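Justification of resources, computational component.

The compute hours requested in this renewal are based largely on the per-chain cost of generating structure records like the one below. Each record pairs the submitted sequence with a full structure-token output. That output is archived, and it is also reused by downstream analysis tasks.
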Amino acid sequence: MNLRDHLLRGTSRSFYLSLRWLPGSVRDSIALGYLLARASDSIADASLAPLDRRVEALHALRDGDVGTRIIDELASYQTKPAEQELVQNLPGLLDDLERSPDQAALQGVWSKILEGQIFDLVRFVQRPDPLTPEELDEYTYLVAGSVGEFWSTLCRERITDFSTMSAEPHKLLACNYGKGLQRVNILRDYRADAAAGRSYLGPGRFEVERETAQKQLNDGLAWVGAVRGGRMRLSAVLPAAIALEMLPHFGEAADVVKLSRRAIRRHLFTAVPILWSSRWQPISPKGITAASLKAP
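The structure output for this chain reads:
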């Protein structure tokens, strides 16, 4: 196992499984993009580190001017060995970024993610009130919707006859898919975030945002359904399948819901038919369907 696979396996519960099914023409760039975003997220979440040092590091990464000293410092604040190892290896990932044929696209999407991570760190220090709906939409776009756009654009460039849909509508579905996945994260962690003074949802917004998340995940299924390649569909559908299973269990007073690795593998196994047909529907509670999935 090479270092990049080792880092992916240590820091991702489901993405590592999905990644292996991606076509080779896009796998390396998507994996590198994930690791860069995951490393900067680990820096942002290093709560033992001073806030100003985390913000400084994220600004430096966005501006391409980060030094190894601050990376080593912030790696030392990581409480999980896998995340510490990832941050320690960030200089090597930055070298990989410089050598990547997709450097411009990767730097572009990572800059948006970094902007969202910086916003997430400083917004509640500047103003402790909940995010407005407009702020929430912009935040989910920066840290996740932009990733959907990146995937859609890169795959269209690298994979012949990639989609049954024209570029812009397909990219919009991918953007919504990413935003929906981030909304699921926000709904899942609602209680813990609110207790820590980070209110992403204003009063009365929980159920509204749950409905929005479900609609955006269905847009994600529509994106998957328009993809012609079975391996690409299998790789891309797993996050939606997992999110749709968890979503009904979230509540303002509920504990955090997480799926075991065994449950994640179960989803991957049951999704295998999507290799041959995009009519597959994910395991989901009654009332949640993949009605938007259509065969090419």
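The first helix runs from residue 3 to 11. The chain is about 65% helix and 0% strand.
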